[in-house]
Each structure stands twice: as structure tokens, then as C-alpha cells.
Amino acid sequence: MKDIYEPGSLTQAIDFHLAHSVGKTPDTASTTDWRLALSRAVRDKLIAPWFEATNRTYAKDRKRVYYLSMEFLLGRILEDAVNNLELEDDAREALAKHGVSFADVVNDEPDAALGNGGLGRLAACFLDSMSCLGIPAYGYGIRYAHGLFRQSFDQGKQVEMAEDWLRHQHNWEFERSECLYDIGFGGEVIETGAQAKWSPSDIVMAQAYDTPVAGWQARWTNTLRLWSAKPKKIFDLDPFNRGEYMQAAAPAVLAETISRVLYPDDSTETGKALRLKQEFFFTSASLQDLLRRFLTHNGDLRALPTKVAIQMNDTHPAIAGPELIRLLSDVHGLSFDDAFDTAQNTLHYTNHTLLPEALEAWDVGLMRSILPRHMQLIERIDDRLGRDVAMSKTGVTPRIVENNVVNMGTLAFTCSRRVNGVSALHTDLMKQTVFSDLHKVYPERILNQTNGVTPRRWLHGCNPGLRDLLNETIGTEWVSDLEQLENIAPLADDPAFRKRFMAIKQDNKRRLADWVAENMNLQISPDAMFDIQIKRIHEYKRQLMNAFETAALANAIRREPDADWTPRVKFFGGKAAPAYVDAKNIIRLINDIAQSINTDPVIGDRLKVVYPPNYNVSLAEMLIPAADLSEQISTAGKEASGTGNMKFALNGAVTIGTLDGANVEICDHVGATNIYIFGMTAAEVQAAREGYVTQDYIDRSPILNEVIEQVRTGFYSPGDPTRHWPVLEKLLRDDYFMVAADFDAYWDAQRRVDGGFANKDAWARMAVLNTALSGWFSSDRTIQGYAKDIWGIDSLAGETE
Ligand code: 9GP
User: With a 6 A CB cut-off, is 622 part of the ligand 1 pocket?
Assistant: First the structure.
């Protein structure tokens, strides 16, 4: 299919869509109108490659990947698409003809925040890489009407507001009103002989919305298919006619609740049933959809694994095991054993956390009431597991159903052909801890695929200055072959190159400083070190340790203001799950510390603290290229991988971090002399648990002790001296993440960083080497690993007809 516009005719396309899709003239068009027109024009360019990719996959009946994820944290789509199609200059020029700024137009787009953090953003990077590499794939998820909440601060306290990304037209998707599946809940199982049939009491419909996802230079384009819940029965006319209007609308409202909001991660007991329904809703719709597609070309469902690889992104879609078995056996007539084997050879599971509270476990009663047939099947799967366990003679006793709960990690593991962790350390710990029993029974099943990030968004898109320098120096191939960045490594010793590299960093810092001045009414100097910690607020990520170190540094400056300080601006960014009280308390403390430091004339420009509200993908795109120092300071053994750490290193920030998650591999790649590692290792953390007393560590650290005393006596909350007691109370009672134990090592490492930053040449060299040696952390490399080791799928891009 031919592109509908001549090359270079973006102007014509934008003007056409402004009139015909948006219904405006250039004189009356708002920024949003221009954005909608540009989005339409750009989307048009995706159609030909999209159809071509789909047709080629069908024609060749090729194996496809189905990536099932509760979260796709896409961020803005327009700028990314413009970048992937290399249309930036054309778009800028076309808009400029109307006196419209390209930057204003792309910044007008709300983030598609259909995710909480790393897991959802990883899914988005994977979509990009699968398209870049020409791997036929569908992303399957939920089209939440409201993504992750918007965060603001009220006197330092986090306030949550509903997010509204679909308020304007969402021009990237195609509504598929014909693509509908029934999703059942509740009811009973009717058994006739060996046959079982589930008769649900409630049914909602899942309707598809498709978004084309173009890879680099649109070499290949895949589909993100998101499901929206619709009522089976639009409207109840009887109650309406009786004047009972609320009751008449109730069924529709209830059905639509399923795709209304993204649940915050790490959250609470509340809404458990709804969460389980959401999980089943999108998993079942996706499986029905992919089976329908498979059956258009194939008759024997036992051949499913030859054409289909399903990846379960964490346990959220783990109900895929029993649901696929149900569809294959109850609906399509396979025996249980055939259905189990087929499902197991098709399914794969990625584990993203070892934190016990994030490993899903559903109450058996809840599971039985919402999914009665699945509960039966889970028990049969558990029997299969029991048989394998007995045969293995390992002496271990892993079970899926234990103490009246269904352990979804064990279920996902049992139903999968391959199970992977997301960094080398995390995968080792999976084998040693949560999955140690299962690993003994199935020693071949666990493997590692260290995470990665897409260089298109996280360097080419967000750091145009560095992009241009790289293009000029090593050509453009690095965009789709990131390890070519190594070619700039020798230039780390070239003063002229270093100067240009750091001038770009300085521009990025200036841009951020301007933004802070304009949006937060705070002046910061781009000459100071920009030290950034951005991620979800969680105790294990230890923003509290960073806050304490910030306060301690302020104390030291106050004592000796005339000493030779390395000026710093500390940035914090991130949201706490609304029900996570301890994390919200930490946010308030950080904001209070910031207030105290930023208004202290003695400290002045030596230290400033910035906590922009509503951290999201778009903010990350501005912060990361401006960072000198990347804070990756989780308790060793707790951060499965991290991906922010990779984005920072790629953009020439130096890491201060623990030997946790992918930091270990970053250290291996960039070299131990180009990273500041401190603190206990995972093994040392384990050893220190025995007899751990927080107060002992505080007593041994005068620097920490002083800060703790300040917090206790209300130094940061004058007028409300007890405000931060809950933070201290928790720390003293249960410093599970060992803030106190690692504090001094962190303080010392920060002082080494001060010295390092003061030596401009040496720092610039480290910064260049971080970029040069981070190419391995491309999500293209990760996806190639999945394709080869897990999915058994080849690239179709570039393959001749
Ligand atoms: O916490 C992990 C993070 O370390 C990892 O980088 C990311 C992607 O693999 O997943 C996060 N896990 C979750 O968000 C929930 O399990």
C-alpha cells in the first residue's frame, strides 16, 4: 500500500486534517487543534507499514508474540512517532508556517499513564523494540479511562487527583466496535460426565482499541490492542420507565468500572475483587482473540506453541494458565492433559519483584466466587505440580494452593515453559529464595533477561543535543544498534570532544533550571551538580536515606559555610501509592526538608532541593538528560533491576548506587572507576538482619544522629514538631530496608562524589564513558534475548517477500 501523501507533504496533510478531522481553520485553531491535526497526519504515515507488517505475518503464517501486561506506561505518543518516522524537521517547518511552535504542540499531549512505574514503562520499551526489530507482536492490556493519578502537594503532602488522558480525542487508536468478547464472572460449573461447562452469572464485553506501534524508521509496525469494558445490556428499560433512572444505568456503570482506573501498585485490600476481575477481563479477552486468529489458519490447537508465544508480564495475567486450559478443553474439546501441555508450551512468565507484598495471592473463596471453573482447574494444575514434585524426588513441597490462598507466582511458574528474572542478580535470587523449591523441581525453567530501555525515546528523542553529536561523530546506526556507542569511548580522552559533550549537558541543565524557575518559582544554578532520584516512592528505594543525607549536608554547610563546597541541586520525583502511608510520610518529610534548605540564606546556592509534583514519563524525559548524578540506592537484593539507572547512564550521568538489580551489570559495563558503589551487598544485608537494632547504627553515626534529632524535635516542621514522628517511629521499630546501616557508607560515597565533580575533566571523562559503555542496556538487546531464548521467533523486518 502506498503512502497517501507525497514525501515532504506533511504541511498539506496537517492542513487537510485541521479542516477535515478537527473542523477548524488556521485562524481559529488552538494548540490542541494543531496537535490533533499533526497527530492525524503522522498516524496516516503509520498505516501503510502497519498493513504491510500485518499482511506479511498473515501471509507467511508466522509465529507471533503476545505480550500480556496490565500496564503500558507509554507517555506521550506524538513526539515519539515523529521521531521514529524522522519527521521532526518537516513537522517543525509545517507548523512554523502557521506561526505555531512544534514544542508547544508536542507538550500539549497528555501522557498516556497506563502504568505505575518500571514494569509498565518496560512494557512500552519492549513494544518499541519489537517493532524496531521486526518481531510480529501484539501488546495486550487495558484501556483505562483514567491512568495513574495526578499528584500535587498541599503543604508538602501528596494529594491525588483523577487523571483524564482521554478528555480530548485520542487520535492514535482505532476503535474496533466489531471486536468484542464476552467475559464471564461468577455463576456455577455444570458437569456432565467428564465434561464441565462454566455458566457465569454476569457477563461484560471486552471491546478492542488498536494503536499502531511503529518501530525505528517504520521498518515494522505492530499493534497495541487495549480492551475497554462495555455492558452486555446497554440499558435497562423497565426500571427507566418506572422512573428509576439510577437503577436503569447501574449495569452499564458496573461493567464499565472494570476498565475505569489503573490500580496503584503496592496497594491495599480495597478493591481486591475488582482487581481480580480486571486481570481476568483483559487476559481472557486477549486469549480468545489470539485463539480466533490462530484458528483462521490452523486447525489443530495442539500446534498453538508453534505459532504463538505468550509472555505474562508479572503475575497480573497469571490467570492465563487456567483460562487457556479452560478455553482449550471446555470450549475446544482438548483433554485436560493436552490442554495443559499446550498451554504450558505457549506461556512464559516474567517475575519483576521478590518483595513478598507484591507477589500476588488470591483468597480461595474470592477466586471461587468470581471464577469458579478456574478454581477447579487451579486445583488440577496443583495436582500436576504435585506429581512432578514427587517424581523429582527433591524433597521439596511447593504448592499453588496453600493456607487457603492461590499463590499466583507458583501458578504462573507451573503453567510456563520459561520463567525469567530481569537482572542477573535478581534471577539468582529468584533461584535461591521465592522460587527455590520450584527451581529444584524444574532446574531448566528459570533464565535471565536483563532489562533494557529503548534508545529511540531515551536518547534520540529526549536528548537532541547528544543525538546530534553522536550522529556527527559515529553516524546514525547507533539508534538501532546501540552498542556502536562504544565507538565514542576513545574520545573520552579527547578534551575537545569532552567539552562538546559537557556543553550539551549544560544546555540540558539550563533548560531544566528554566523550567524549575517558571513552574516552581525557585532559582537554581546549572553550574551546580544535578543529583536526581526519580522513581516510585517506596521504602526499599530509600528516598529516606537520600533525604537524611540532604539534611546532613545542609547541617555541614551551615556549620562551615565558607568551606569549599561542591554546589548541588538535589531532585526528587515520584508518587506514592495512595494507601501507602509510610511512603506518603516520607514525601512530606522531603518537602519539609526542601523548604527548610531552600529558604536558608546561609546555605544559599550551595544546596537546593527540588521536588516537582506529578513525576511522569514526560518529566523524566527532561530530567534524565540534565542529570550529573543518578541515585540508585535501594537496599541490595530488593530492586529487581531498575531501568531508570540505564536511562541515566546512557545520557551521561554517573551513578551512585548499591550493588543491587542491574546496577551490578552497569558497574561491569561502565567500569568500577566510572560509578560510585557503596553499601552492603545482598548477602551482607541478609547477614545483618540477625539481631538488627536501628538505634545501634544511629548511635554509631553522629551525622545521622543529628538529623534524626532534628526531625524528632521539629526542626523541619516548626509549629508542628511531632509531624514527622511516624517516620522515625517506623524507622526505629522496623528499619527493614536498612537505612541506618547503610547511611554512613552512603555519606562517604557522596563526599567522594563531591570531590569527583569538582575535577571537571575527570568527571567529563566518566560521563562520556557512561554513555559510551551503556549500549548493552538497549531493550533491543533484551528483546533479542527473549526472541531467541524464550519465544523462538525470528525477525521479519528486512526479510524478502
Ligand atoms: O521493581 C521492579 C524494577 O526493579 C524493574 O526494573 C521493573 C521492570 O522489570 O519492574 C519493577 N517491578 C514492579 O513494578 C512490580 O513488580
Answer: no
